[in-house]
Design a protein that fits this description.
The complex is a heterodimer of chains A (425) and B (137). Chain A is α/β, with parallel strands linked by helices. Helix content of chain A is 30%, strand content 22%. Chain A folds into 2 domains: 101 residues, Urease, subunit C, domain 1 (Roll), CATH 2.30.40; 274 residues, Metal-dependent hydrolases (TIM Barrel, Alpha-Beta Barrel), CATH 3.20.20.140. The longest helix of chain A has 17 residues. Chain A is globular. The two termini of chain A are 38 Å apart. Chain B has 137 residues and is α+β, with helices and mostly antiparallel strands. Chain B has 4 helices and 5 strands. In chain B, helix 1 links the parallel strand 1 and strand 2. In chain B, helix 1 crosses helix 2. Chain B starts with 5 loop residues before the first strand and ends in a 12-residue tail after the last helix. In chain B, 45% of the residues are buried. The chains are: A alpha/beta (425), B alpha+beta (137). Chains A and B meet through helix 5, helix 6, helix 7 and helix 9 of A and strand 2, strand 5 and helix 4 of B.
C-alpha cells in the first residue's frame, strides 16, 4: 500500500483540540499515525512531503450540495438543459468542488432524477474526480410548491417532481429508491422568491411527509426537508426527518423540538444563498431593495438569531449555502465558513469543525471521516496559511497546496516546501 | 500598510469568456499584476477567488476586512492594479465600517458595484436579540 508522510505541518485535527506541530502518516486510504511534540511517524517506504509549516486539516464537507445545479439565474432554467449536457456539466461541478478542497458532500437535491446517482457512482468507480457523495432525489414538491414551475398552459420541469397526496409521494419515492438514491428530499415549505409558496408557507401536509418517511425507513434511507417555515420543521421532526435544511423561521416551539432531537438531526441554514441574493445579485436584476421587499432581509435577520440560539442549545449546525445559482455559484462553498464566523459568531475553529467533524457525521461516517485521526479516511487538505487566523483563506484555491481524497492526491503538493505562514495574518 | 484588508480577485472572470488555449483568465492576470505591484510580502493580502458574482461586468475585485462592509468593483482589467491598491490602502486606513464612495479613487467610484455588510440584524444594530423572533407560519 502506498505510504505518504506529511512532515513539518501544523495539524488541525478537527477533534476540538488546539492546532499542533506534527506529522501524519497515510497508508493506503487511511491515516495510520499522527505524531506530535517532536515525535515522528514511521517513514519506512513512504513518500515524505515537507509541508513547510502549512496547515494540514481534514477535507471540507458540504452539507447542502447541488452538484447538478448549474449556476443559473432562474429555477426553470435547469429544466431547459438536456440530460446529456447536464451530466457533463455536473461532472465539471464535481471536479470544481474537489478543486476547492471539498472532499465530501451530502447532496440536497438533484436537478434530474438520476443525475446525482450517476455522478456519485462514477466518482466511486474512480471514473471522474469528485467528492465522496450522498446522492439525493430531485425535490419532491406539491402542486404550487417550490419547484413547481409549470404554467397553466405549458408544462415545464426543473429540479423538482410534483406529487400530490401521500400515495403519489409514496410511489415517486419508491421509484427513486429503485434508482439508487441515498436521500429523499422534500419541499414542505417555500421560498421568498416564490410568490405562491413563500418561506413561511407550509405547503405539504403531514400525511405526505409521513408517506416519504415511511418509504425511507423501510429502506434504511434518510429524508431531508426544505424547511423554512416553523410548521414544516415541526411536521418533519414528528415524522422522523433527519436533515432539516434552512430552519430559518423557526419559533420557540420548533427550537425546543430541534433541541430535543439534536442527537439525531442536522440543521443546515444555507445562509449563503440568502445573503448573496440580498447583496450581490444586482447583475441579475435583484437589487438589495428588491430582495428586501421580497422578504429576504427579514428572513436572514431572523435566521441569524435563530441559528445563534440553536447553537447554544447544542443543535448541530453545518455550513452549506445552496451554492449553484448565478450569484452564489458552485466553487464559492467555503464562503459559508466565513458567514458562520461573521454572522453567527462561530469561532474559526467551530466553523471548521462544523465543515469537517460534523460533516463526517452528516455523511453517516462520523467514526471515520472528518478528522485527522488514526484510522480515519485520508481526506486531507494542505493549506498555505492558518485558517484559524483567517477562515477566508479556504476560499482561495491557490492556497490549497495539496488535496488528498481517500489517500490519493487530487492536487499534489509541489516539491518545494511552502514558506511557513503559521503566524496570524 | 494593508492591516487585515484583503484584496479579493475573481480568478474566473470573465466566467464565460475563458477558452482553451488561454493560460490565464483576465481575472487571474489582474491578480498577478496586483501581487507584483504589492510585492515585499504584501502579496499575501491578495486572495484569488472562485467568483465574486459580478459576472456580467467582468473583471471583479473586492476589498474585505474583518468587521467592514465588503466593497466590490466591476469592469476592471489588467492596468487597474494601481487604482485597486490605492483603494485598498484607503479602505485599510479608514476606520469606517462602510466606506463612503467619495473617498475612493475617482476612477473606481462608478465601478463600485456591490456593498456586502459584515454583520446582519441585531449584531449590526448592536441591540439585544429577541429570542422569540421566529415567524410562525
Amino acid at each position: 500500500m502506498a505510504k505518504t508522510v506529511f512532515t513539518a505541518v501544523q495539524v488541525l485535527d478537527a477533534g476540538g483540540g488546539e492546532i499542533f506541530a506534527g506529522e501524519v502518516l497515510v497508508e493506503g486510504n487511511r491515516i495510520r499515525a499522527v505524531a506530535r511534540d517532536g515525535a515522528q511517524v514511521d517513514r519506512d517506504g513512504a513518500r515524505v512531503i515537507d509541508g513547510g509549516g502549512a496547515t494540514l486539516m481534514p477535507g471540507l464537507i458540504e452539507s447542502h450540495m447541488h452538484v447538478s445545479f448549474l449556476d443559473t439565474d432562474s429555477l426553470e432554467a435547469l429544466g431547459f438543459v438536456p440530460p446529456e449536457e447536464h451530466t457533463l456539466l455536473a461532472m465539471k461541478n464535481a471536479k470544481k468542488l474537489l478543486d476547492q478542497g471539498f472532499t465530501a458532500g451530502c447532496s440536497a437535491a438533484a436537478a434530474k432524477p438520476r443525475l446525482d446517482i450517476v455522478i456519485r457512482n462514477a466518482i466511486n468507480a474512480g471514473d471522474i474526480p469528485g467528492p465522496r457523495m450522498l446522492a439525493a432525489t430531485p425535490e419532491l414538491t406539491v402542486s404550487s410548491g417550490l419547484g413547481d414551475v409549470r404554467l397553466g398552459h405549458i408544462h415545464r420541469d426543473t429540479f423538482a417532481l410534483v406529487c400530490d397526496g401521500p400515495d403519489e409521494f409514496r410511489r415517486v419515492s419508491r421509484e427513486l429508491v429503485r434508482e439508487g438514491v441515498d436521500t429523499l428530499k422534500i419541499n414542505p415549505s417555500g421560498d421568498e422568491f416564490v410568490p405562491f409558496a413563500r418561506a413561511h408557507h407550509t405547503v405539504m401536509n403531514e400525511d405526505e411527509i409521513a408517506a416519504v418517511c415511511e418509504v425511507a425507513r423501510s429502506r434504511e434511507l434518510r429524508v431531508a426537508g426544505h424547511c423554512r417555515s416553523a410548521e414544516s420543521v415541526k411536521m418533519c421532526l414528528r415524522q422522523g426527518v433527519e436533515i432539516i435544511y434552512h430552519a430559518t423561521l423557526v419559533d420557540e416551539e420548533a427550537r425546543d423540538m430541534l433541541e430535543a432531537a439534536k442527537d439525531r438531526i442536522f440543521v443546515s441554514p444555507t445562509l449563503g444563498v440568502t445573503y448573496t441574493t440580498l447583496y450581490e445579485a444586482g447583475d441579475w436584476g435583484i437589487s438589495t431593495d428588491i430582495a428586501t421587499d421580497m422578504g429576504l432581509k427579514r428572513e436572514l435577520e431572523i435566521a441569524v438569531e435563530n441559528m445563534k440560539d440553536l447553537k447554544k442549545r447544542g443543535v448541530r449546525i453545518l455550513p452549506g449555502g445552496d451554492y449553484g445559482f448565478a450569484w452564489n455559484p458552485i466553487g464559492n462553498n467555503a464562503r459559508d465558513l466565513e458567514y458562520f464566523v461573521d454572522l453567527l459568531d462561530f469561532t474559526p475553529m467551530e466553523a471548521i469543525m462544523a465543515a469537517t467533524k460534523l460533516g463526517g457525521e452528516i455523511m453517516m461516517m462520523g467514526n471515520e471521516l472528518g478528522q485527522i485521526k488514526e484510522g480515519y479516511l485520508a481526506d486531507i487538505i494542505l493549506v498555505d496559511g492558518n485558517p484559524l487566523a483567517d477562515v477566508s483563506i479556504l476560499q482561495d484555491a491557490s492556497r490549497l497546496l495539496g488535496i488528498m481524497k481517500d489517500g490519493s492526491f487530487h492536487k499534489d503538493p509541489t516539491d518545494q516546501p511552502a514558506a511557513a505562514r503559521v503566524a496570524a495574518e | 500598510m494593508m492591516g487585515g484588508t484583503k484584496i479579493l480577485v475573481c480568478g474566473t472572470c470573465p466566467r464565460h469568456g475563458a477558452t482553451a488555449g488561454h493560460e490565464k483568465t483576465l481575472g487571474a492576470s489582474l491578480g498577478v499584476e496586483i501581487k507584483a505591484l504589492l510585492g515585499g510580502g504584501a502579496e499575501g493580502a491578495v486572495r484569488m477567488m472562485n467568483c465574486l458574482a459580478g459576472c456580467k461586468n467582468a473583471c471583479n475585485v473586492a476589498l474585505a476586512a474583518p468587521g467592514k462592509t465588503r466593497l466590490r468593483f466591476s469592469r476592471l482589467g489588467p492596468g487597474d492594479g494601481e487604482s485597486i491598491i490605492s483603494a485598498a490602502k484607503i479602505f485599510a486606513q479608514n476606520s469606517a465600517v462602510n466606506l463612503p464612495g467619495d473617498l475612493l479613487p475617482a476612477d473606481l467610484r462608478d465601478r463600485l458595484s456591490a456593498r456586502s455588510p459584515a454583520r446582519i440584524g441585531n449584531a449590526a444594530r448592536g441591540t439585544k436579540h429577541n429570542r422569540d423572533g421566529g415567524y410562525n407560519g
